[in-house]
Amino acid sequence: MRRLFFSLVLSLGLALAASPLRLATTTSVHDSGLLDAILPGFTAETGIPVQVIAVGTGQALAIAGRGDADAVLVHAPALEAEFLRKGKGVLHACLAKNRFLIVGPPEDPAGVRWETNVLNALRKIYLKGALFVSRGDNSGTHKKELELWQAAGLWPQGKRWYLESGSGMGATLTLASEKGAYTLTDLGTFLFLRQKVRLEALFDRDDPRMINQYSYMAVNPKRFPWVNFEAAEKLRAYLLRPDVQEKIGNYLKDRFGQSLFEPLYGRCVIPVP
């Protein structure tokens, strides 16, 4: 009887260990291939499979905010701060950063490549009426784009040249390439897809406005008792581990001659209160 009892306990423990972790994340992390490079190691070490839900940051946080994900990996500090203030997330940690850039057709009809200020680059696109594809999906990239237009004192919504893809970063880059349009993208996804699109990096500067910070949060188990919080804690610890952070920094670096993602080791460059 005791043997049967311990056998059942062991079986239950293994079943719990194998329960998948649902990770809601931004398409820019997914489309760059980074998750395919780092998550298999986590599963191999822990036995915990990871189910990736790749959507825009706003949608990822909405999914997690219903308790339909166990953790999020996103890149919109203001939305992250709101998520934390509402008690929906815990264990916030900054994992990596890269930068946003404006890409467009090699012909560069608006003359963006000569600008050293991103707001002036957007003003040139606006005044020229050059085609621009917005993600239009409440993602971190979409939020950044709207923030930049507002800072430039411009409202392009409703203009005939302003298109919305309503899609992830990879699909938006493909559409911009097909249309001969400009778009805002993160560095990682653009480098990963550069050979597949007819687009060039036209505004690519070390500008504080263009910092793109990626963060991880576990969903609060006090708010949503059914989430797999133990697995979310383990993934957080794994992602912050020095060897994994180094792997993130080295991802495809030899192929592109630069890091797609610069590790942050948990230290935020953009404060998230």
What attributes characterize this protein structure?
about 270 residues; alpha/beta; D-Maltodextrin-Binding Protein, domain 2; 2 domains; ten-stranded mixed beta sheet; disordered N terminus
Structural class: alpha/beta
Radius of gyration, rounded? 20 Å
How many helices? The count is 12
Which percent bin holds the helix content? 40-55%
State the end-to-end CA separation: 54 Å
What's the name of the CATH homologous superfamily of the largest domain? Periplasmic binding protein-like II
Per CATH, the class of the largest domain reads: Alpha Beta
Oligomeric status: single chain
Task: Tell me about this structure.
The protein folds into two domains: 2-97 and 213-266, Periplasmic binding protein-like II (D-Maltodextrin-Binding Protein, domain 2), CATH 3.40.190.10; 99-210, D-Maltodextrin-Binding Protein, domain 2 (3-Layer(aba) Sandwich). Helix 7 (140-151) links the parallel strand 5 (132-134) and strand 6 (162-164). The chain has twelve helices and ten strands. The longest helix has 16 residues, at 2-17. Strands 1, 2, 3, 4, 5, 6, 7, 8, 9 and 10 form a ten-stranded mixed sheet that branches. It starts with a helix and ends in a 7-residue tail after the last strand. It has 273 residues and is α/β, with parallel strands linked by helices. 43% of the residues lie in helices and 22% in strands.
